[in-house]
Amino acid sequence: MSVSPPSATSQTPGEEAAPSPPVPQPGRGFVQDIILNAFEPGVNQSVLIFINLAFVLLLLTLVGLTLLVGLDLHILLLIVLAVGLMIGFNWFISQLPNTAPDPKTTSKERDKQE
């Protein structure tokens, strides 16, 4: 496990640093990066690749099922739903950097609100 160097920005006491987006650590493998991301805030690139790969495999399975069984309304509906879910998921993840926590509230105040 590597320790990241302290940030170069100076902070006054009581001021919290803005959270930086998680990036894959150089010493981690793909699977280890996915598992360890469950304990870190945000979504890193390995998880996005894994989820999109799962969506592609789902679509390939549904298309293969369509080729084997024939054109079926239920399978076509599942394909449309899978494509919509994939597009919606990727859109949501792309919008996450645009949301910033309210700088007026501290983490202690947010914990009290929950």
Automatic annotation (TrEMBL):
UniProt keywords, alphabetically: Membrane, Transmembrane, Transmembrane helix
One of the Pfam families matching this protein, by short name: Pkr1
GO terms under biological process: vacuolar proton-transporting V-type ATPase complex assembly
InterPro entries, per database record: Pkr1
Positions with biased composition (Basic and acidic residues): 105-114
Residue ranges with Polar residues bias: 1-13
Transmembrane segments: 47-68, 75-93
GO cellular component: endoplasmic reticulum membrane
Location of the region described as Disordered in the Swiss-Prot/TrEMBL record: 1-26, 95-114
Name of the protein in question: Uncharacterized protein
